[in-house]
Amino acid sequence: MAKTVVYIIDDDAAMRDSLAFLLDVNGFQPEVFESANSFLGKALSNAPACVVSDIRMPGMNGIELVRKLKSEHVPCPVVLITGHGDVALAVEAMKAGAVDFIEKPFDDAVLLDAIRSALVTGPSTHGDDAARAEAQKRLAELSPRERDVLQGLVAGKINKIIAHELSISPRTVEVYRANLMAKTGVRSVSELMRIALAAGL
Predict the structure, then answer these.
(1) In angstroms, how far is the first alpha carbon of the chain from the final one?
(2) Rounded distance, CA 51 to CA 97, Å?
(3) CB 6 within 8 A of CB 30
(4) Which tens digit of pLDDT belongs to each residue from 5-40?
(5) 162: which of 60, 125, 144, 152 fits an S-S bond (Cβ 3.0–4.6 Å)?
């Protein structure tokens, strides 16, 4: 049985090698590229595949790559790797069509789960009615203030800015964030963002 191809795009050679090794030992066939442009210059196979790309790269960045693949109707889900503080960019990328984003440093299992999930669900389309209904149900328990905090997060704002706009302390924003995670049953900010976007927030 042919291995599933995972295209790794990162301008950091050490990161490419480490991801390639991780994917290889877990049964995937990694193919590495140092830039989005070198990846786009390759003829992609029609077999199931997934892209794992850094968000910040010289030349075309991860978000531009997501938009390019979407505009060319390439049926390849994209998981983005983001440095701490790139959450606003990552949310923008999910709005553009990325299926997930993972913050560095990340656990190997988290990345592998994201890839397996992306291969099952395929490219992101936030317009699925069933997904929207399910997401809205999961957000139904939120208090008005928790919803305010969530909207701030979806807008890519940091805790300090959300706190200032809502006239509460950054510590209180952290408490609301923890409540959001608990009430929606998510384990990561990316999952929370995915639900919020699917719900149409």
Answers:
(1) 41
(2) 12
(3) yes
(4) 999 999 999 999 999 999 999 999 999 999 999 998
(5) 152
CATH, range 5-121: 3.40.50.2300
How many Å apart are CA 18 and CA 99, to the nearest integer?
Answer: 22
129-198 CATH fold:
Arc Repressor Mutant, subunit A (1.10.10)
Q: What are phi and psi of 40, to 5 degrees?
A: -70, -20
Measured CA to CA, the distance from residue 56 to residue 117 in angstroms comes to 23
3-state helix, strand, coil in the chain (%, to 5): 55, 10, 35
Burial of 115 (0-12, 13-18, 19+ CB in 10 A): buried
Beta strand pairing call for 5-9 and 49-54: parallel
**Can you tell me the distance from the alpha carbon of 193 to that of 20, in angstroms, rounded to the nearest whole number?**
27
Can you list the alpha helix ranges (DSSP code H) found in 12-128?
13-25, 36-40, 62-71, 87-96, 108-121
pLDDT at 125 over 60: no
Helices (H), 126-188: 129-139, 144-154, 159-166, 170-184
User: Would you give the distance in Å from CA 90 to the centre of its chain?
Assistant: 6
Q: Domains of the chain: which residue ranges?
A: 5-121, 129-198
